[in-house]
Design brief:
By secondary structure, the protein is an alpha+beta fold. It has ten helices and 15 strands. It has two domains: 214 residues, no CATH class; 123 residues, no CATH class. A hairpin with a 5-residue loop joins strand 12 and strand 13. Helix 3 runs antiparallel to helix 4, helix 4 crosses helix 5 and helix 6 runs antiparallel to helix 7.
């Protein structure tokens, strides 16, 4: 999903507080008027959405769990066909729900930008609706004066290129509604989330409140995402084992071979039984249970980790790095043991270039 040819229709902004602020009887500020951006401002907002949610981004696919009347899914999808008056009302409800979901100690207040629009081809565009929660940060605006450059302090800047202090939930319509159907089916939409705080597993309270408590979704069982998590968690487990360097290298080689094989699935149990000593299998399984990784077979899709399966990189405690083709690594690099803080390595070939 590329989010190409993005066009915005309606934009409205509301203040988002913390749940504790409501208990202290502070009321958020809501808008009744739509935001009108100049062409450069609209272009920048489109870029933020495309960069965060597009196919080359770190967005994650969601599966809708709550889709009944009055659910977040119901409110979000009703925005697409609502009148301007109802759009403003429904967006206020969403902003209020976001405030009520913000209970964790690390969460910050900010703004909710609710927007609908289209993406894709001009002949058959896809409709979408998104809510963007942005946190503010202090910064400066550069201004040119007769005496030279001047920096103007801004106490609450949002959506700067380097900030990344925002989260986006986006519902992209893949099937038009049936006539008279007020409550849409969750199968009618692709749902994506971008979150600057989201880890590769999504197992992060600061991220989960947004897609879970607020949007009523869970992380989808996406094959490429789960394959990536399997690879990263297995690498983490191997690196933490109290084994010799050579044994850890062998385990990593088994992992790469397992993922590059013709088999169409990966399985925590299968890998453990094939390649790990018996006393390490239970700890290995427990590590995946802690992140709620499926116990069943997972369809294998290595597109997110293809480059990592081609080159193996090693980092030593002295900050020295070695990289070599993964496929021939064991033939090109021989690690012969460690002694007194030194690692003895033999590398096939002669030095050609120093950079």
């Amino acid at each position: 999903m590329t989010f190409a040819n993005l066009k915005l229709n309606r934009i409205i902004v509301h203040e988002v507080l913390l749940a504790a602020d409501l208990e202290a009887e502070r009321q958020p500020s809501y808008s009744d008027e739509f935001l009108v951006l100049d062409p450069k401002g609209e272009q920048l907002l489109c870029k933020r959405l495309a960069d965060s949610l597009g196919s080359d981004s770190h967005s994650v696919e969601l599966a809708v769990e709550l889709d009944g009347e009055g659910s977040p899914f119901h409110l979000m999808t009703r925005l697409l066909d609502s009148s301007d008056k109802d759009f403003a009302r429904l967006s206020k409800d969403l902003a209020a729900r976001l405030t009520n979901a913000q209970t964790a100690g690390t969460i910050k207040a900010g703004i909710a930008v609710v927007v609908d629009g289209t993406m894709g081809s001009n002949s058959k565009p896809d409709r979408f609706v998104a809510v963007l929660k942005a946190e503010s940060d202090a910064g400066f605006v550069k201004e040119k004066t007769a005496k030279g450059l001047f920096l103007k302090f801004i106490s609450e800047m949002v959506l700067g290129a380097q900030q990344r202090l925002y989260k986006i939930g986006c519902f992209v319509e893949k099937k038009s509604p049936d006539d008279g159907d007020d409550i849409r089916s969750k199968g009618d939409f692709h749902v994506l989330v971008y979150d600057h705080q989201m880890s590769n597993t999504g197992n992060n309270e600061a991220a989960r409140y947004f897609y879970g408590a607020f949007l009523g979704c869970r992380l989808a069982d996406n094959a490429s995402r789960l394959t990536r998590i399997f690879y990263e968690e297995t690498c983490k487990f191997i690196d933490g084992l109290k084994l010799t360097s050579q044994k850890r290298l062998e385990a990593r080689t088994h992992l790469v071979s397992y993922l590059k094989s013709e088999e169409r699935h990966v399985s925590v149990k299968d890998f453990a039984e094939r390649y790990l000593p018996s006393d390490m299998r239970i700890p290995f399984s427990k590590q995946f249970k802690q992140i709620n990784f499926p116990a069943r077979n997972v369809p294998k899709d290595v597109k997110d980790i293809r480059r990592r399966l081609q080159v193996r990189r090693m980092l030593f405690s002295s900050k020295v790095r070695i990289s070599a083709p993964e496929e021939d690594f064991n033939d090109l690099v021989k690690i012969q043991g460690e002694q007194n803080g030194w690692t003895n390595i033999t590398i096939k070939g002669s030095l050609e270039v120093q950079k």
